[in-house]
Amino acid sequence: MFSKHRLAEAAALLGDPGRAGMVTALWDGSARPAGELARIASVSPATASAHLSRLVAGGLLRVEPRGRHRYYRLAGPQVAHALEALAALLPPHAGSEARRDAPALQRARLCYDHLAGRLGVAVSEALVASRRLVLQEGAYTLAPAGRRWFARLGVEVGALERGRRPLTRACLDWTERREHLGGALGAALAMHLLERDWLRRERGARTLLVTTAGRRGLRNELGVVAD
To answer: Where does 85-227 show beta strands of DSSP type E?
Structure first.
């Protein structure tokens, strides 16, 4: 049963800057070892270990043994969705408190495994404008034209529908304050764009770079003009 006490427990997991730093470092769906997360959060290895144990026990992270090492990642896309929704509730920082990478995050980034930022919103809105997606009452549905378009891209929508993850999900973008496409279909689209080298992941970050081929392809396919 959900109660005020459970809500307080969930909030407390992110109430420490060190734990919050670790969780946000994994927002892009990556897996990182404890030592790297300790450096990102600017805490000692012992403190990092305690933080990670608490985050795993609280259900926000999961641990994956790889030989002698242990890697940590978000427990699932629902955690990223919750983080995005939580961030959207807060006003953006200004002045000296603004992050130096904020412009890049606002431009194009991964929200766990799907597109976010201005690019994610622009792509999602272009799919709605072209009647490939329908956005109604805060939820996306895939239209017949969209099913055909994704099939042409090589995305097996039927296989995604048989999976456990929802096919589509409207994720409120925390920088743009508008919805972008999440769910299994959003993840498949992001993977397709990365595989075609229209997008590239920046090393060690969740920001995305749009390639020359990507700018041309996004404009031709969707009428999206990428930064």
So the answer is: 109-111, 114-116, 133-136, 139-142, 169-172, 179-182, 199-201, 208-210
